């Protein structure tokens, strides 16, 4: 079965919820207490429920993973990733405001992996449209990535590749 060589995740509303806003709308400093991360106004930052299991699946299957975020506050995003203790899991992290075409060009160059061998999750259709146009299998996420959508997308990727001419 064909599996992606690189899986790329958006952050806001795909891997994490920042109290209902984009992470660049939070108010630092962030406080961390007993694995609860909150900003100065009490907004909680949390990974969606299935995210740890999804990342573990990627580890188990030895699939490289990456981040592509166009947040206006890359420093805050990186701090939150550190607090969540998941920074090291990602082989690549492209975090800066821009079209995601730039993020994916950087990922392709850094990894040497073809767009056709990548799978991408994002909650914004403009990103899905742009990145999908590159040939990346791009999956629209509604209200946070779930294990169900993740595994269905792996199947979709495998099916898609099976239909490709060799
Ligand atoms: Mg997002």
UniProtKB/TrEMBL annotation:
Pfam families: Acid_PPase. It comes from the Bacteria. One of its GO terms (molecular function) is acid phosphatase activity. Signal peptide: none annotated. This is Acid Phosphatase. It comes from Bremerella alba. The lineage of its organism: Bacteria, Pseudomonadati, Planctomycetota, Planctomycetia, Pirellulales.
